[in-house]
Amino acid sequence: MSINISKAKDDINGVFVSGIMGMHSGSQYLYIIKDGELTPAIDNIYSIYPSKIKDIYGDGLLELSSLERDPNDPDSSNAACSKILTWYKWDSASGLTTVKVEKQNR
What we know:
Layout: E1 2-9, E2 12-20, E3 26-34, E4 37-40, E5 45-47, E6 64-69, E7 83-91, E8 95-104
Antiparallel strand pairs: 1-2, 2-3, 3-4, 3-5, 6-7, 7-8
């Protein structure tokens, strides 16, 4: 499990958590302080493998990610198939917004 405390939005700090769920899956969470309490800001993001939380644009705001199987790859093995890495930015009004999608070959 990794925990990052950083800006989730320009004026809102967040606690970003990335965890491993078994050998081949991961999940990410974002919590913010709302009305003096630590509150979930998003539903969990699930992934076939643990994926990264990082500032991909250098703007001081962290992005969450999800690693999924490429639906166009016929390989049935999660370990061997091509994957799609999707990056999300938290928008306090509407939840998560997709900001970047990358194809990762085997």
